[in-house]
Amino acid sequence: MTYMKQSPVPALLLAGMMCLGAGSPAVAEEVSAEERGLRIALEARERSEGFGNFSASLTMVLRTKQGQETERHLRIKILEVIDGGDKTIFIFDEPRDVRGTAFLIHTNRDESDDIWLFLPALERVKRISSSNRSGSFMGSEFAYEDITDQVIEKFTYRYLGDEPCGDLVCTVIERVSLEEDSGYSRQLIWHDTEEYRSWKVEFYDRRNDLLKTLTATDYELHLERFWYAGQQSMVNHRTGKSTVMSWVDLQLGVELDERDFTRTGLKRLR
Fold this sequence. Notes:
By secondary structure, the chain is mainly beta. It is built from 3 helices and 13 strands; from the N terminus they run αββββββαβββββββα. The chain has helices at about 35-50, 145, 265-270, and strands spanning about 55-65, 70-80, 85-95, 100-105, 115-120, 125-130, 155-165, 170-175, 185-190, 200-205, 210-220, 225-235, 240-250.
């Protein structure tokens, strides 16, 4: 999910679970803003690869404008596919009314991602159309396109400048989706120049108005290489609603069964 990560995940993930890290390699003055933005994205991807499969538990808190909260618990598994598209599973465990609901995502670098939803009450796997990728992920402020891996080839990039972000210095880059069914006109991403961590993402709607802001906190280093945010908060400026995702029990290099990452396998998951 857009998970905020240096390695897998969505851009929630990022989404993480966004997805790109930050920072800016040294460049000459004659390099264009577009080339510099792309270099940042490519450097982040190089640093993120090689995590060797991923699993974690996740608490999702949905909060209304009035402060009412709904809490959900789920698990996430990511099968890393080098030189291809990663495969991701979300499995909901609580509350009871969503228990057993699962999502399967096959990331595609050259075309729209494949997303399937398993509904345990119906014992049915439903495909989510690419035209619905801007829809809400299980009632949260994350859209389906936020929880998928943010593949570099599906965006254009532009470097906008540097600015302070807390005690760090961050680059700000703009990325624009090349996919017509995206719900966003553009996104602005803040990355620190030291470790390529993504600290904030602003999402602009098709009218170019600020729609949502994703912030990441509590970064931790794993395997002396990969940085992951322990918490991500998505705020919807239009509705006043928000969703906070907290990550625990994060493991890299785990053994995963590739057969689970299929439509048939989705029905067996519990």
